[in-house]
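Collaborator request, handled under Task 6.
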Amino acid sequence: MACGRWGAVLGATAVWLIAGMATAGPIGSANTTASGTPQLPVEGLITEPDWAERPTGDDVARFYPVLAQYLRLSGRATISCPVAKAGTLSGCTVIGQTPVGFGFGEAALKLSPLFRMRPQMLNGEPVSGGVVRIPIRFAMAPDALSGGGATIAETDTAPPPAAMAIARRIVSATIGESQTRATIKVAMARFRDQVSPTGLTQEGQLALDLFELAENDSATSYRERIAAGYARAIPEGELAQIAAFLESPAGRAWVSTEADVGRAEAAKAVDSQTKVAIDARTRLCRQITCLPGDGPPAP
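Structure tokens returned to the collaborator:
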């Protein structure tokens, strides 16, 4: 079970809902004393920010927490940021995030430099002051498998129970349950390192434990679908012959050899792709001028 299949192309949307308490005087408006002398804007929360620049959906996708991507998990985070004279934000802090433990707060902080307000003005001059709170929502694009799209109806009739029993023997001999679970365990260990090299939060650990359970359940249903496919496609007598062969010493040796060859070839696949890319680059650099190090090796 390759965990990478969950890394589908990400499309993210962001919603900024700016809100806050009213202040003694709106930031950006010149307060005036009894003598009529203009004063600096009141320090406080900016409730109606005038944005000059904001992050795009692509920006949100770029900083979307990795584990949340794999889980297709949505989240919210609210950051509080002082506003500089030029309208830029700095020194932002996370004041809330849901769910916790998946990095939505950290992602929101990474987005903060992409916000810029139009400068607050006093007597025609830009001034600093005030704090803005920015709630940011992280959401995956609609999943084509779970809503709105057409679904494939299960129109196939159930195979005869006797044929299914034989087909399950074939699947057990070729896709052993214990081996499948062991493969998933190894893949999940690599997955954990990939999504969080420095360690997981308690919530992240729980999410990946549930992810592993879902993978094992998926493997079980996959084995059952394969068995049903065999039972529908192959006459019962031939199914029995295949099962008997696979359960014989010769059949077990064949299955073991086939599995070993398959694993070896799979392990070579990535390395092979790299070699093909290098070979193609070398061929190209024999015909055009390439940067040093990219051309063919010296004779």
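The cover message to the collaborator said: "Residues 161-247 form one domain. Confidence is low (pLDDT under 50) at residues 1-43, 144-155. Please let us know whether this matches your experimental observations."
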